[in-house]
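Retry 2 of 3 after timeout on previous attempt. Resubmitting structure tokens to design endpoint.
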């Protein structure tokens, strides 16, 4: 069995859980692969014969049986980009804030790794959305695509079409197209609904719309959604999972459900609603304190 560890080497908070994973692997004769950048930052704890050092993260991922992602959901989004088109189970260890996808806490690392060794887990498949620009360039998002204003205090105007049918012109600070996975991210902050993962839909959520009656939409993900910029594209920023894309002056993006997915390792004692209650404090009554 071989694990690949992915982590942001600039985050000091990953050191302790990284050390826990490495010690468990040594004790259980499990091989590891890590990138040279991660090894450079943590050379003292990654100096072992069972650790293979690769030049890039892509190489480290290639031959692994399991991926261990240490960090927050941002690290999980980075992991998802590295995974396509591979299908390798991913365990997310949370050292960030909320951690909806990276939901294993550091104190549960050994228990989680023992369960993986015993194959006592289930896989939660999360599909990515695909965005195709007018020049044919493609991008993928596990959380969301964002159209937002830049270098201006004015609102931008975006036109949305679904399956060739006009939906609306959005005059707003921006527009989000989110997956069910991303429903608890920016979409939730913008007033969009929470959606159970694996539901075959996408979410269209305006950000601070000028018209208060313009509300979020839930659409089946089996048909294309097209977003066009009705104002000068120089004032519109397009990004996927937080990464900005340089676009020309004729911004037109077709969004569909992709064939790519990431498989998150879950355990029998975990469920999505428990995660929501724990992370969003549902039902917590501060008056009881």
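Retry 2 succeeded. Sequence:
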């Amino acid at each position: 069995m071989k694990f690949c560890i992915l982590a942001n080497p600039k985050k000091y908070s990953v050191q302790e859980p990284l050390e826990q994973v490495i010690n468990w692997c040594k004790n259980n004769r499990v091989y590891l692969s890590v990138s040279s950048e991660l090894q450079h930052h943590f050379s003292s704890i990654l100096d072992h014969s069972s650790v293979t050092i690769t030049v890039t993260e892509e190489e480290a991922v290639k031959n692994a049986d399991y991926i261990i992602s240490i960090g927050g959901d941002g690290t999980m989004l980075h992991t998802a980009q590295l995974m396509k088109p591979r299908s390798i189970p991913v365990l997310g260890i949370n050292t960030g804030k909320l951690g909806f996808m990276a939901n294993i806490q550091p104190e549960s690392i050994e228990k989680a790794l023992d369960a993986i060794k015993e194959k006592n887990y289930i896989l939660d498949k999360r599909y990515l959305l695909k965005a195709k620009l007018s020049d044919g360039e493609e991008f993928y998002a596990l959380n969301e695509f964002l159209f937002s204003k830049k270098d201006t205090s004015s609102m931008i105007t975006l036109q949305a079409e679904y399956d060739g049918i006009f939906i609306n012109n959005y005059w707003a600070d921006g527009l989000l197209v989110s997956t069910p996975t991303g429903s608890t991210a920016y979409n939730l902050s913008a007033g969009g609904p929470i959606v159970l993962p694996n539901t075959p839909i996408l979410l269209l959520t305006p950000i601070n719309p000028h018209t208060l009656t313009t509300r979020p939409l839930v659409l089946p993900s089996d048909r294309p959604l097209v977003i066009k910029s009705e104002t000068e594209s120089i004032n519109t920023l397009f990004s996927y999972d937080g990464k900005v894309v340089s676009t020309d002056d004729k911004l037109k993006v077709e969004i569909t459900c992709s064939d790519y997915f990431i498989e998150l390792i879950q355990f029998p004692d975990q469920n999505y609603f428990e995660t929501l209650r724990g992370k969003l404090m549902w039902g917590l009554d501060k008056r009881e304190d």
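Attempt log closed. The radius of gyration is 21 Å.
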